[in-house]
Design a protein that fits this description.
Blueprint lengths: L8 H10 L18 H13 L13 H8 L3 H11 L2 H13 L3 E4 L7 H7 L6 E5 L10 E5 L5 H16 L4 E3 L5 H11 L4 E4 L4 H4 L3 H8 L3 E5 L9 H6 L1 H7 L2 E6 L5 H13 L4 E5 L5 H8 L3 E4 H6 L3 H8 L12
Parallel strand pairs: 3-4, 3-7, 4-5, 5-6, 7-8, 8-9
Antiparallel strand pairs: 1-2, 2-6
Length: 332
């Protein structure tokens, strides 16, 4: 893999401005903080409206020149200049990243998944890191979401969704966490299907697992994260990857959810409000309260009997979806 196959000149600048990649661990040394997603959306508009037009044109300019060209406050211009000043360190870190079988891309790059960009618009992550064939990210699929601690009925349901998705040639999109995520992804992979794992942390450590590495090489698995490859886990990163899971999927199935607490509940409620994709929730006599409340909020029901009876999960989900994805303006 070559860095230039994934990152354009514009992309290299966006990576420097919007990611902690190649910054000293712990953020010491007086380093400037990377731009957040909302900050970048504003800066991207300023760049577009300026004489510079493209992010790559920022390279080599002083803080004073940037302040003038982009009509930025001096402290913001200095922040841009300081972040771009680490281009040499970033180039070395990228060489190491790609040599270990991982990649990086930004919203400015051709490899960035079109489905994610089209669905999330201005909420699409500025930077993605990953491993595996990135072309698989634009094929859509079914997101399978649920609790880490899952009962026997939920376990069987998650695995059946994975198997049915593989049979219907639908990718399983999930978070790779213990419980629902791994059950669904594992069942799909065992059935010869494709899984897309959106990680909240530790991409570098995960890709070193021998069994996963072979699946990556075989084109069955793609791992990605909107966070730096060595980033640790936090509640914020877990919440932040939720929208990526929904944004990559054509449909979402919530297997088990707590009520008004936890990442599964928060992600599903956000997806229902935003209309990123049709959301289904497991229905039945013994499902958790969170599932029943999600059905009241607009999720479509999917029972175990319906799941086992369907010959084509893709057709069934399409026929029973309550909503269609909502498109929004990029800078809305």
């Amino acid at each position: 893999m070559n860095v230039t196959d994934y990152l354009s000149e514009d992309g290299l600048v966006v990576l420097a401005l919007c990611s902690a990649f190649a910054l000293p661990e712990g953020g010491g040394g007086g380093e400037a903080a990377p731009f957040t997603l909302s900050e970048w959306n504003k800066l991207a508009r300023q760049i577009h409206d300026s004489p510079l037009k493209q992010p790559a044109a920022l390279t080599g300019r002083t803080a004073e020149e940037l302040a003038k060209d982009l009509a930025l406050p001096s402290e913001d211009a200095d922040r841009v200049a300081r972040l771009l000043d680490r281009s040499g360190r970033q180039a070395l870190e990228l060489e190491g990243l790609f040599s270990r079988g991982m990649w990086a891309m930004t919203r400015m790059d051709a490899q960035y998944p079109k489905k994610l960009r089209d669905t999330l618009k201005h909420q699409a992550p500025t930077v993605l890191f990953g491993a595996g064939d990135p072309q698989l990210l634009s094929r859509g699929g079914v997101a399978v979401i649920g609790s880490r601690n899952i009962d026997e009925a939920g376990t069987a349901f998650a695995q059946e969704v994975g198997r049915k998705a593989a049979a219907a040639r639908l990718s399983v999109v999930s978070g790779g966490a213990r419980g629902t995520d791994r059950l669904a992804m594992g069942a799909a992979l065992d059935a010869g299907g494709i899984a897309l794992g959106v990680l909240a942390d530790s991409l570098e450590r995960t890709v070193r697992q021998p069994d996963l590495r072979q699946l990556l090489l075989d084109g069955q698995l793609v791992l990605l994260t909107p966070f730096a490859p060595a980033a640790g886990f936090s509640v914020g990163t877990a919440m932040g990857r939720n929208k990526v899971i929904y944004g990559l999927a054509d449909f979402a199935v919530v297997v088990s959810s707590d009520h008004q607490t936890g990442g599964t509940w928060a992600g599903a409620v956000e997806a229902l409000k935003a209309g990123w994709c049709p959301v289904f929730a497991r229905d039945g006599a013994d499902v958790p309260k969170g599932n029943r409340e999600l059905l009241k909020l607009g999720a479509a029901p999917l029972t175990e009997a319906e799941l086992r009876a369907t010959d084509s999960l893709a057709d069934w989900l399409r026929d029973h979806a309550k909503t269609k994805p909502v498109e929004r303006d990029l800078f809305g």
